[in-house]
Amino acid sequence: MNMEKDRIRLAWGITGAGDRIRETIDVMKRLKEKHSVEIRVYASQAGEQVLKWYKLLDEVKSSFDRFYVEKNANSPFLAGELQIGKYSALIIAPATANTVAKIAGGIADTLLSNSALMALKAFVPVYIMPSDYREGEVVTDLPDGKKLRLRVRKEDVEHVEKLRSVDGIHVLESPEELESEIEKLLSTF
Asked: I need a surface site. Which of 5, 19, 36, 113 has the fewest CB within 10 A?
C-alpha cells in the first residue's frame, strides 16, 4: 500500500446534489470512526454551495481530515494524487446527473469528473452514488424540511447505466449500499 504511514485514505467528492446528503455524511462519519480511515473531502463549487444551503458545511469541515473546494479541473490536484497512490478509492456521493453524464461521456472538465477518469486509468476504484438512477419521480428533503418532488429523466438513467458497464466504477443506489461496499473495500486492507 502506497499510503503515508500505511493509513488508509479515501477521497470523497461531493457534488451539487442535495438528495441524501445528510445520510451520506452520516455513513462517511461512521466509516471514519469504525475503521480509523482518513477521509479527505473534495467539494465541487456547487457541492460547497449545497453544503452551505443545508447548513452542513461546518459539520463536514470539522468531521473529516481535510476539506477542499474545486478551483478548476486540476486544482486541488486530486487527479494526480489518485494516480500516484495516495488514495485507496474515490467516492463521489451524492453525484449529480451532470457529473454522472460527464464521467459516462469521458468529459474531464471538472475536478470530480477529471479525478474519476484519472483514477480509472491508475486502477483506483471509483464509487459513485448518483442522485438520479431510476426513471420516474423521487421526493427529496429540502433544507427547511419540506419535500421536493422531482422527475428523473430517461437520459439521466442511461448515463448511470453506461457507468455500470465501466471497469473500475461501482454504481451505488443508496447510502446504505455505499456503506456496505466501502466496508468490503476496507476489509481488504
From this structure: 5
